[in-house]
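Hello forum,

I keep getting stuck at the same step: I have a sequence, I want structure tokens, and every attempt I make locally crashes halfway through. Rather than fight my setup again tonight, could one of you with a working pipeline run this one for me? It's a single chain of 237 residues.
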Amino acid sequence: MFAPQGPTVRELAVQALSSVERGYDLLAPKFDHTPYRTPDRVLDAVTHTLAALGPFGRGLDLCCGTGAGLDVLRAVCHGRIAGVDFSAGMLEVGRARGGPDADRVRADARALPFRDAFDLVVSFGAFGHFLPAERPGLFAQVRSVLAPGGRFAFPVAAPARPGSLGYWTLLGFDTAMRVRNALWRPRFVMYYRDFRLADVRAELADAGFRVDLYALEELGRRPDGSPRCRLVVATAR
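Reply #2:
Ran it on my machine without issues. Output:
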């Protein structure tokens, strides 16, 4: 499915009926051949924007998976870089494919084993795995691992317009996940419709950040002129 090297429908079904951690452990060997990996054009756009704000010292890729976001850190950081993820399978694949310049640490993003250790934290495509009630604690964890004045950056796509194909696709996926979690244990949390920019900005401010938004112009604009994707850059106060 997705690509010849990607997972089959049966493999995806097994992963979807597992926990989030176990599901990603199973998916890890084929993850980079699925649409779930952050596209290179998004990584390149983020790199371009961060390069204008840097350079940075030490960098962390939060929920790094197989490590696609580490390439962003390599481009904009001159200090040691690291990735953290709770899936041992994803980290193992990342170690096999990545270079020795990055530390890869297994840990839960809600209980990070660092303090004041980084100047830049990035994250790509992971926030749907956290319930809205968990986000304030997650953002507080990120704040705790940043040095004074450090930055937390992540891209956020513009919401799909009501009635569009993207809107109905996302709604259908969200509904299917909620039905699955009502009927099956362990839960597999993946609710991307809950990640609303206005709520996230307020939660970041409460966690001690100043929030700025940057249009990722390389990803284009919608017919009304608004950017298709923005980079949230939260600076630790």
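The first strand starts at residue 59 and ends at 62. If your local run keeps crashing, start a new thread with the error log.
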